[in-house]
Amino acid sequence: MMELSNKRVLLGVSGSIAAYKSAELVRLLRKQGAEVRVVMTSTATEFIQPLTFQALSGNIVYSAWDDADRGDGMGHIELARWADVIVVAPASADLLARLRQGMANDLLTTLCLASASTIAVAPAMNRLMWDNAATKENLAVLKQRGIHVLGPGAGGQACGEVGLGRMLEPEQLVQGISGLFSSGILSGAKLLLTAGPTREPIDAMRFLSNRSSGKMGYALAQAAIEAGADVTLVSGPVALATPDRVKRLDVNSADEMYEAVMSEVAGSDVFICAAAVADYKPANPSKEKVKRKDNNVDLALTQNRDIVASVTALPDKPFTVGFAAETSDIEAHARAKLKRKGLDLIAANQVGDGQGAEVDENAMTLYWADGSQHLEKTSKAKLARQMVTIIGEHYRATTRT
Ligand code: PMT
């Protein structure tokens, strides 16, 4: 089986003698089914000719700023969006330092900064540079931001010394890159997820709803698939494409979402309720379109069933993650919901004033009975991957006991 079928790998090559190994890496990535585009720093072009990468990747090689706007319609933002993963191999000490600083002083660092994709670096440098406190600190910060580090290996170095700092061999890098698409933390787990808003009918034409776009929930579905889960997504009405390999069930109202969740939940290992479910619905929705009257209309509301609390009340309940959308006192409200709804974990986010809902970025704090973890504002795609890792670790910890 080709492990990287249909995957788009943007290979960044920075200035290191190990750049020659990246030519073989391109060949092996393509052999595994990946589409590869190469971006080189100007120093890298002194070690190896762009033409080598062009011949092996079958694509134009980008190096100068304007290369990304040339010929094939790929501006640098498109190039950043195009990638499923950005792999910087070799990643020199200088490149790591610039990534850590968030610099955008050449095309490669700009793409890393402008991309929501997974980023991995394969360090390559002299052993003393690798051992230097500055490099160690840079790596620690990059890891904390969710950047994956592949290697380095130990052995003889181009400078004649022996030690840690060799770029991993191309075969090892291909393995590592394949692993990025399946973190494995939810491998084999059956995961049920809700996303998007609900619509509560007022009459034949009108409904009550909210600002949820589904972006957060869909990003979680994608991240859960990448982590190896078998994902069923119960989705309110949104304008988003279904992630590959996700089973999607479309619903409109909170009642429909409740029914869909209850009929799918049996056998689920993990349930994540990211949907913005309406707490109330019109008590007497009209089948006819209500006519305009001269006087005001009173809209009587009645409470919807609480979906996530109904799941945690089941005798064989899955590991359950709820959300809290708050405008103030986030921790207090989130912890109250964690307890009241019988959740294992709650993901709390600030909403209102253009935050949380509709937008492409979000920040989140995850709370559980005796701990919490804050995740800084970033793209929902990246945030979802970080959340899935934490959810997976907690789920695994509970199933181990
Ligand atoms: O979709 P986006 O535009 O990307 O925006 C993302 C988001 C802001 C909608 C998302 O991050 C989020 O916060 N989702 C939960 C919104 C919400 O309804 O929060 P709540 O605090 O009102 O509800 C608490 C929990 O109970 C939630 O898990 C909710 O899904 C669940 N609930 C609520 C009511 C109900 N009747 N049944 C439920 O299961």
How would you describe what is shown here?
The chain is elongated, with a radius of gyration of 24 Å. It folds into two domains: 8-179, Flavin prenyltransferase-like (Rossmann fold, 3-Layer(aba) Sandwich); 190-400, Rossmann fold (3-Layer(aba) Sandwich), CATH 3.40.50. The chain contains 14 helices and 20 strands. It is 34% helix and 25% strand. By secondary structure, the chain is of the alpha/beta class. Helix 5 crosses helix 8 (133-144). Residues 212-217, 254, 273-277, 279, 304, 306-308, 322-325, 337, 349, 351, 356-358 line the site of ligand PMT. The site of ligand PMT has 27 residues, from helix 10, helix 12 and strand 17.
In short:
By secondary structure, the chain is of the alpha/beta class.
Summarize the SSE layout with pairings.
Layout: E1 8-13, H1 19-31, E2 35-40, H2 44-47, H3 50-57, E3 61-62, H4 76-82, E4 85-91, H5 93-101, H6 107-113, E5 118-123, H7 127-131, H8 133-144, E6 148-149, E7 153-156, E8 162-166, H9 170-180, E9 190-195, E10 200-201, E11 207-208, H10 215-226, E12 230-235, E13 247-250, H11 254-264, E14 270-273, E15 280-282, E16 301-303, H12 307-312, E17 319-326, H13 330-340, E18 345-350, E19 361-368, E20 371-379, H14 380-400
Parallel strand pairs: 1-2, 1-4, 2-3, 4-5, 5-6, 9-12, 9-14, 12-13, 14-17, 17-18
Antiparallel strand pairs: 7-8, 10-11, 15-16, 18-19, 19-20
Helix pairs in contact: 1-3, 1-9, 4-6, 5-8, 10-14
